[in-house]
Amino acid sequence: MSLKKKPVTGMRDILPAEMQIRDYILNQIKDTYRSFGFSSIETPCVEHIENLLSKQGGDNEKLIFKIMKRGEKLNLEAAETENDLSDSGLRYDLTLPLSRYFANNAANLPSPFKALQVGNVWRADRPQKGRYRQFVQCDIDILGDATNQAEIELILATTTALSRICPGRSFTVRINDRRILRAMAVYSGFPEEDVEKVFITVDKMDKIGVDGVKAELLDNGYGEGAVDKCLDLMEKASDDVSGVRTMGELLNGVLEEGAAENLAQIMETVNRVSDVDCRLVFDPTLVRGMGYYTGTIFEVSMEGFDGSVAGGGRYDRMIGKFTGIDTPACGFSIGFERIVLILLDTGFTVPGGNGKEAWLFEKGMDNERICSIMKEAMEARTQGRTVLVAQMNKNKKFQKEQLGKEGYQEFREFYKEELK
Amino acid sequence: MSLKKKPVTGMRDILPAEMQIRDYILNQIKDTYRSFGFSSIETPCVEHIENLLSKQGGDNEKLIFKIMKRGEKLNLEAAETENDLSDSGLRYDLTLPLSRYFANNAANLPSPFKALQVGNVWRADRPQKGRYRQFVQCDIDILGDATNQAEIELILATTTALSRICPGRSFTVRINDRRILRAMAVYSGFPEEDVEKVFITVDKMDKIGVDGVKAELLDNGYGEGAVDKCLDLMEKASDDVSGVRTMGELLNGVLEEGAAENLAQIMETVNRVSDVDCRLVFDPTLVRGMGYYTGTIFEVSMEGFDGSVAGGGRYDRMIGKFTGIDTPACGFSIGFERIVLILLDTGFTVPGGNGKEAWLFEKGMDNERICSIMKEAMEARTQGRTVLVAQMNKNKKFQKEQLGKEGYQEFREFYKEELK
């Protein structure tokens, strides 16, 4: 029986040309984040099934690749459900493993801890263009900082990284606070216990518009009074710092004291400090999917492209699930695969990726000559040059074309008898 | 119920100090390999179970983490064996996925193709010190080159990378050829069909010595004549190039024509071209575990440390399992985790890892001042400096100690009232 050549469903092989772009982007991101004082860490790709299924992951929990128990632990006959057969699974994001990591290692880490984590995650999503079942996430998080210094650093670092990857583009950071969302819902007359459900509908604003959101909320049985009041409120505030303060005044008594001022200060400080072409926009309709957010939430979009290229927020209650003691936490995730696609689509070439040399020698050349060619190549490499040494193929033209695809543009040819 | 803080059995969290060393080693390896013209590629961590269980992986196939089928495909009631529940698993090495990759993408790759692959692999080994169930492999392979130019390039590139990571150390490359091993066994009188079994015993030479190997072979029922003849033969040849040629003469008629000269040429060329302090040693007892090797095999050790730090060989018949047409292939794998351990144990510090600055500001400082501190930090970062900005903790001394562990050695402190 011959073996399977294609990758498993929904996953893919990455060719050298794309890898060059991926490596370039990752290096830009890592260099930027390190300059802000973020430290690289790593967590295992495999996580306890109990942690993965602990309701921190929302819908992603339905998409887990579960790993089978091994040896004696695997009892096929006694197993009644899927969960009897599995004690671990592939992580679906980097935030849950980071929280476990911090709970496990806090004594050996500074406080606050600025973490940088890059790694694969897996989700058994329906395969579709540009969406794969294995993909890279690239997160920074600040753990143990309750002040909005965390949000400010995260936004500055991420927009700086993005602007290094895509110079000349302008960025928009939409920003909101889960506490403002909650206060708006309660103020408008939605039942407190339904707030999460209301958010799920509001989160569709981008796709179905205000009318769609209104229709769905009415469909779900909420009174027209509450629905209109809430939607009106969302339009009342301007999208700048003064809008945040206006919203704070409107929600006075319902909204947690200081929450609006906290958000206003984040926007003001980033505006003052940032040297990136980036606009901060207060968006009271911004929800973000994950259930674990407790405060500020943000999302970055790039001029000329739909959707977001980065997003994150504050999740002050996840680490407490591991330790019993809540620890403030705030994170930002760059949409790495999205950015790769954008650069591929716009025909990006890696700076300095040229100048690779291929030295081809004729078949049957005596060993003495080959040795001296190789010695010369070794010297060139110590000077930082990239030199590939290979035997010339019969079809030299095709060989050079193929090498050209990998960025080889300089060729040297060596023949048994020197060409005169 | 609180969640699990520890990583899953046999896997581990990696702290920032070790990550710095890992990143440093990986960058050295990647830079060196790229300068030799190797191109980065990536394969999914998840592989078809049929491929993983195709007898290419030897004992590693017993250590596979199997992933459960999903949705309708998972039929718990109809499942009779473990294999009915799983259609994929985590890769146990990078060679099998590379072969699948090449079979799948050869039309879009140059020939020969020089691949560089770095990634996690998983083996459910019994956990023990320094051996984990998830670990990084770091491989280079040359596919489509039947000449010994492949072996020569691989040995030059790998010893160059190792010498950049551990400057001042000397290396030994032990080298042999599976065809020589086979010829020795047949020449000595072992039955042709038992050759693989004989190798398994010979492979234990390092651990149980010549006497142990002899005893085990006799135990396995082989005649003393064959055993003595084979062990004598292994000692007859000197460990240099002339030894290879001597062996070739001794095995004349049994050994494939040109095999000894091929190996001798590899040794001669590397000796001439290499500028690394590395000794090539012909070792007719070298076997290497994996069953898929068909020709040259090699293993690198480093002065002052037991065991090997890299190994590889030629496997000309694996890609044919996917395509039906054999393709010459040769690879070298650096023992990345072993090298990390060596550098950690010898107290290695990453060059240029110092000079990280932490700027601490007093709690309650007005926003105006914080903004100007942050603006100054932004400027410093654009000059390539690493600047962490954080609020000063109550226990400033402890905060600095913890930051010191992450490599921060320069501190600046900012107070509400400037110290005079």
Automatic annotation (TrEMBL), chains A, B:
GO terms for molecular function: ATP binding; catalytic activity, acting on a protein; histidine-tRNA ligase activity; transferase activity. It catalyses: tRNA(His) + L-histidine + ATP = L-histidyl-tRNA(His) + AMP + diphosphate + H(+). L-histidine binds at D93, L94, T95, R123, Q137, D141, R288, Y292, Y293. Keywords: ATP-binding, Ligase, Nucleotide-binding, Protein biosynthesis. Its EC number is 6.1.1.21. Residues 1-351 form the Aminoacyl-transfer RNA synthetases class-II family profile domain. GO terms for cellular component: cytoplasm. It is an enzyme of class 6 (ligase). One of its GO terms (biological process) is histidyl-tRNA aminoacylation. CDD domains: HisRS-like_core (cd00773). Pfam families: tRNA-synt_His (PF13393). PROSITE patterns: AA_TRNA_LIGASE_II (PS50862). Belongs to the class-II aminoacyl-tRNA synthetase family. This is Histidine--tRNA ligase.
